[in-house]
Amino acid sequence: MTTKPTLSIGLIGSGFMGKAHVFGFATAQKVFDLPVDIHLHTLADITDDAAARAARDFGFSHSTSDWRTMLSNPEIDIIDITAPNALHKEMAIEAIAAGKHVYCEKPLAPTAADASEMAAAAESAGAKTQVGFNYLCNPMLRLAKEMIAAGELGEIRGYRGLHAEDYMANANDPYTFRHDPEGGGALADLGSHALATAEFLLGPIAEVMGDCITVIPERPDGRGGHKPVLVDDIGRAFLRFANGASGSIEGNWVATGRKMQHDFEVHGSKGALCFSQERFNELHFYSAGDAPGRRGFRRIEAAPDHPPYGRFCVAPGHQIGFNDLKAIEVAEYIRAIAGDQPEPFSFRDGARIQTLVETIQKSSATRRWMAV
Amino acid sequence: MTTKPTLSIGLIGSGFMGKAHVFGFATAQKVFDLPVDIHLHTLADITDDAAARAARDFGFSHSTSDWRTMLSNPEIDIIDITAPNALHKEMAIEAIAAGKHVYCEKPLAPTAADASEMAAAAESAGAKTQVGFNYLCNPMLRLAKEMIAAGELGEIRGYRGLHAEDYMANANDPYTFRHDPEGGGALADLGSHALATAEFLLGPIAEVMGDCITVIPERPDGRGGHKPVLVDDIGRAFLRFANGASGSIEGNWVATGRKMQHDFEVHGSKGALCFSQERFNELHFYSAGDAPGRRGFRRIEAAPDHPPYGRFCVAPGHQIGFNDLKAIEVAEYIRAIAGDQPEPFSFRDGARIQTLVETIQKSSATRRWMAV
Amino acid sequence: MTTKPTLSIGLIGSGFMGKAHVFGFATAQKVFDLPVDIHLHTLADITDDAAARAARDFGFSHSTSDWRTMLSNPEIDIIDITAPNALHKEMAIEAIAAGKHVYCEKPLAPTAADASEMAAAAESAGAKTQVGFNYLCNPMLRLAKEMIAAGELGEIRGYRGLHAEDYMANANDPYTFRHDPEGGGALADLGSHALATAEFLLGPIAEVMGDCITVIPERPDGRGGHKPVLVDDIGRAFLRFANGASGSIEGNWVATGRKMQHDFEVHGSKGALCFSQERFNELHFYSAGDAPGRRGFRRIEAAPDHPPYGRFCVAPGHQIGFNDLKAIEVAEYIRAIAGDQPEPFSFRDGARIQTLVETIQKSSATRRWMAV
Amino acid sequence: MTTKPTLSIGLIGSGFMGKAHVFGFATAQKVFDLPVDIHLHTLADITDDAAARAARDFGFSHSTSDWRTMLSNPEIDIIDITAPNALHKEMAIEAIAAGKHVYCEKPLAPTAADASEMAAAAESAGAKTQVGFNYLCNPMLRLAKEMIAAGELGEIRGYRGLHAEDYMANANDPYTFRHDPEGGGALADLGSHALATAEFLLGPIAEVMGDCITVIPERPDGRGGHKPVLVDDIGRAFLRFANGASGSIEGNWVATGRKMQHDFEVHGSKGALCFSQERFNELHFYSAGDAPGRRGFRRIEAAPDHPPYGRFCVAPGHQIGFNDLKAIEVAEYIRAIAGDQPEPFSFRDGARIQTLVETIQKSSATRRWMAV
Fold first, then answer.
1. CATH code of the domain in which D91 resides
2. Burial track C143-170 (b if 16+ CB lie within 10 A, e otherwise)
3. Is D238–C234 a contact, with Cβ atoms under 8 angstroms apart?
4. Same domain, D93 and D49
5. D2 has pLDDT over 70
6. How many angstroms separate the CA atoms of A312 and A331, rounded?
7. What's D179's DSSP letter?
8. A309 touches chain C (CB under 8 A)
9. How far is B302 from chain C (nearest CA, A)?
10. pLDDT of res. C1
């Protein structure tokens, strides 16, 4: 019996995303034939007690209240950052300098400049990096990408993308860090997903025209007063892709009634695709090549035909869940480190999205089209 | 038994739209308790023969190859123009001058200036006018308008509108008058409906930023060569409404797979509506006031609760068809002439849409936001 | 110019269905190139006044309070019966004896024996007859029938049919003639449509097992008391078709929330179809022959590819309405009389449905399978 | 820091279901605050090598090729049986006799008699048992059950249930153990889920009328010949519930195009619910109490309002997957053992389903209604 090499994880943070990452590591290990074993080595949190408790709950062997101690530990291969956004850059840069691979939750950094700096550091150090854009790991999105690349839609002509939710729709909900310019607003928070999906499917965006709007101008400050909101609640953009296609996206967190409207529709000369994250185990495909009188959007249900769905369910139609997308992301990142394939969404990709967001914001502020 | 007064129609043109109008007159008369009787008086077409044959088929009492003879006939009350677009202005202006009411197919005129001139002529003459925007006659759109006006959605925050079809998606289909700048392109042809619906629901649009794109740059000219296409195949716009809400629309005639995607979604502080013309007997309503754990978009099916649906079907769920929308349009226009109510979509309204379209086109050409 | 022959109608009854028939005659004439002209000759109603008023409103040339006078009038070709069900048989038999063609609203008669007698009378007299099962006139149902007949689904294996509504769901609504055994109950009223569609698509049903249930045992009698309900509110059946396939249907008028759930799903060895009258301009088609990973139910939208849709709308996706189905029914009946084709749903067909309903009811009462 | 007690698992079998169970144990532990720790103690398989390899891959501490050794090991608390169906009874009875709790994949046993014997053994020994009916663990099914129990639908009147797939639709696929009478057929395999859901929602079924059909009469025997199929490909039943409601179900494994049509619709006097496993993160709710003109089926999306969804995703609309249902099942079983609550689906429940299946099969064979 051969033994697989081991990759050891040092996790920073034990909140919701920390838990989700641990879940992803565990599921990836169980579901995929990974070329390595994943070892949950050390968990770092604010206090010794918190770290020890989380380490025990999450199955880590060690814990610490000083994340820097993990950097000097040669047993640890990957630093996984789920700490507050403001700390991402410092942690990542130091971890890369210490020779670690780095997995970081989105957004990578508050500014494109910071994100680019992080990407450059990783590249020059040869670190493998990952930002958590797990919607892209959906087998149906990969199917869409493959169909487009294979020419099943013909020449691509138009694109519409969305990511709309309503979790900020209540004007009486208090001001949070997300309403701070550093937090970024709806375009940065949700529109970033719409942008990532757009480039995932159609390739680079070359030019944008933005329209960012603050719908709820102030929110309760938690001390009886109100605080002005400076970020957008709705961020729209017209897009020009490098391949000549045009399109639009919208990020919106005041879209009452919508919980996960991460949707797209793309039209080509020979066919079209329509997708909604609200039913993300489906992809709707129209083929202009079907027989006359028999054409229509086909509801393709996720099935073992659409890897890696079959890793989760041996039969079609059973459906994978949101957390399974995280496991796919982890598995591909682990494989990238093991050398089999490129990272699914590296710091460079994360910096790219940040650049798109900022360019759209600037375009909106100046009311002019801008090249990306 | 009292006798109703009669309104007599002089129809110009006997093509598809002419037939649809006659169908609308007949159905309106049968379905509604109109305050007048409609009499199909004279049909005008290019030749005496064509006019006579169409008059017989359509049930008109008289026919002529000279539409101007109808203007001097005191028995005729309404001139109904379904002739080619280029002739609309001349015919309408002369008919108004002759004291007639005028019903005209869309688009009212190739330019906003012409359309405004026609509207002004009608207004100074006291003529009742109508442009055929019959999607607005859908009981479910009226329900939407009422719900918004009544505050059921709360303060309106965001709007998305569409009208996408694929009837121009085949690049091998020949150049037609619609590809001529006079014809207007996808924004003028289909986007105009999206704009009409947007203003119908939310009131005036104050400012626009356009993005008009020619996707298929040339088309067969029918003589073995190709002719460049100068109009847009996709026309998008960002919108600012006078009420403070923002939104976007798209007109698209190369949207492969889409036959009638005249859709909208509108989000308010208390609820949302979602609609697709592909299933135009439904309106989807989300109420944030529903009990927790029981909220969701409700699929409201057209029913006698939604006038004038009950005129067509006594029971819910039976569904009206596209031609029934035309009958509603006719009925309301007839009532407007009889004095009961304002015209549902007058020349002034038609000119307004033309102005919106042109402003968006100019905005696209100059790449700048423009006030309407 | 050639003149078409004329078929003259004598209508009995001016209620909702009478109006719907007139609407059907008018639309059929306008929409189709019928081989004859339809003339609305005489309308018969209870009193002279009622008849005269309705004749005027509906466009009939004459009126009468004695329907029998129409039978002796050689100018009248078709007697159209929309009088109460209890009178259908007497009227139809006399009209047939007088040499008329007869169009009769459903149900043809309260019992299969009566209905068969009516069918036999028509056949021996050579009268062309029609019962109003207009759902079958839907272009998408015809498409389904054609696809099945052409083998596009392969060998047919299983069928599920429904017709469920909720118009009797309120237990406080009063007892009506429909709750009387003569009225028939949900199976007779709605299940009859499900049965008609099943045989329309798959051919004759050979054997049935019924399950008929009274859910609301008594209803207000309008005089402060209650009256027991003896008919079924839900009627279900297992089916064996002569072609070897099996299936089930349900008729249900207490299906809260359902307005027009006239649905079916049929599975063959090579494909499947799924349909709902709630969206009757769509047919969903699954082809097992599509490429692996690209299979799914296709939403085919009604289009000019699906005759006679194109008679109503020149473009796909516009959608026909319930009343247009009536116009198609009328047109085909008129053509049958003119000699071009068989009647779409003759008295014999109507008697067949009545036989199926009664056999299911008896099967339910005896709790045994019965041959039809 | 307090230490939780540990429950140790002895797993028999390492195929797909074995893997799914291990996945369930791991996820349950990570996602829920279980009152105990789960320890993967020993894995038993046919050979020492197979067992050792699977134990290593799945994370078990020990392995064996003799499952009986686990029974005598006092460290092991739960025997988890994913071996072939024919062995379930022997293994379960011996494990119970050895004082173990037993978790067994469905079907519990080929006959109701065997299953009942297993249930009786467990009950008299006080063993906690579980059969894998994980569709019932869906938060949206639990919501449905709660709404019905709370009277939100009023008095229940009618029910339709389904479980249809197409994995046996290809007549050229070979004969398998599932086509053997011991295997049970479509009703036993899929219809059992429809029956379980029906009783989960509405309580006990009192009487049934079955209709079981073999559609593909013989299948390739793998040796160039064919073997007759004696089990049903489609199994239907009429149902009478003890609460007075009536309904129907269908189990079907030749339903071309359907991958997971585990659906139901239930109508009450005040409301209705509609569900499809194809989109199992949604429940559609119609409330007759909504305002007139505003009624319609609401698409409720799974959210933290619907426990235990929030354990998997902190935000609505993200969607759980099929494997998450397994984790919920495991968690509840573990809690039942720890004493907090009844087993979610015990051997008694499994025997009940087997009884229903057999009664329907007998009813079909004798063509008579039968009490359960």
1. 3.40.50.720
2. bbbebbeeebbbebbbbbbbbbbbbbbe
3. no
4. yes
5. no
6. 13
7. G
8. no
9. 10
10. 43
B272 and A286 in contact by Cβ < 8 A?
A: no
Q: What is the mean pLDDT of each run of 10 residues along chain A (372 residues)?
A: 83 89 88 91 96 92 97 97 91 97 92 96 97 93 98 98 97 91 89 97 98 97 94 98 97 98 98 98 98 98 96 94 94 91 93 97 98 97
A158, A169, A268 ranked by CB distance to B234: nearest: A158
Predicted confidence (pLDDT) at residue B1 exceeds the cutoff of 60: no
Distance in angstroms (rounded) separating the CA atoms of residues B131 and B108: 7
Which residue among D165, D167, D324 sits closest to A321, beta carbon to beta carbon? D324
CB of D305 within 8 Å of a chain B CB? The answer is yes
Taking an 8 Å cut-off on Cβ atoms, the answer to whether D233 and C166 are in contact is no
Q: Which residues of A touch C299 (CB under 8 A)?
A: 296-299
Domain end among D291, D318, D345: D318
What letters, b where the CB count within 10 A reaches 16 and e where it falls short, cover C232-251?
bbbbbbbbbbeeebbbbbbb
DSSP classification of residue D120 = H
Same domain, C82 and C11: yes
- State the ipTM, two decimals: 0.95
Residues of chain B neighbouring A248 (CB-CB closer than 8 A)? 211, 236, 248, 250
- Tell me the longest C-alpha to C-alpha distance in chain C: 69
Q: How many domains does chain C have?
A: 2
Residues of B in contact with A367 (CB under 8 A): 209, 368-369
Residues 236-275 of C with CB under 8 A from B: 258-260
Would the CB atoms of B294 and D300 count as touching at under 8 Å?
Answer: yes
Q: Do D297 and C270 touch (CB under 8 A)?
A: no
Please state whether beta strands D6-12 and D37-44 pair in parallel, antiparallel, or not at all (unpaired).
parallel
Tell me: do A90 and A205 sit in the same domain: no
The CA distance from C286 to D255, in Å, is: 11
Residues 6 or more apart whose Cβ sits within 8 Å of residue C327 = C23, C24, C27, C28, C31, C32
Which residues 272-291 on chain B approach chain C with CB closer than 8 angstroms?
277-280
Residue in chain C nearest D265 by alpha carbon: C255
- Classify residue C157: in a domain, yes or no: yes
Inter-chain residue contact B272 with A257, CB threshold 8 Å: yes
Assess whether A176 and A306 both reside in one domain.
yes
Last residue of a domain, one of B101, B134, B167: B134
Q: How far apart are CA C14 and CA C272, in angstroms?
A: 42
| D79 neighbors D105 (Cβ within 8 angstroms) | no
Provide the number of CB pairs (under 8 Å) joining chain A to chain D. Answer: 104
Å from B134 to nearest chain A CA?
Answer: 26
- CATH assignment of the domain containing A145: 3.30.360.10
Does C1 touch chain B if contact means CB atoms closer than 8 Å? yes
pLDDT in tens, chain C (372 residues): 457 899 999 999 998 889 889 989 988 988 888 999 999 999 999 999 999 999 998 889 999 999 999 999 999 999 999 998 889 999 999 999 999 999 999 889 889 999 999 999 999 999 999 998 889 999 999 999 999 999 999 999 999 999 999 999 999 999 988 898 877 899 999 999 999 999 999 999 999 999 999 999 999 998 999 999 999 999 999 999 999 999 999 999 999 999 999 999 999 999 999 999 999 999 999 999 999 999 999 999 999 999 999 999 989 999 999 999 999 999 999 999 998 788 989 999 999 999 999 999 999 999 999 999
Tokens 């027991």 -> residue: C228
Which chain C residues contact residue A143 at CB under 8 A?
293
What domain range is C65 assigned to?
A: 6-134
Q: Within this chain, do residues D148 and D164 fall inside the same structural domain, yes or no? A: yes
A148 interface with C at CB cutoff 8 Å: no
Say if B357 falls within a structural domain: no
The 8-class DSSP code of residue C308 comes to: T
Classify residue C261 by its DSSP letter: B
What residues of chain B lie within 8 A of the CB of C323, using their CB? Answer: 312-313, 320-321, 324
Chain A CB within 8 Å of residue D320 CB: yes
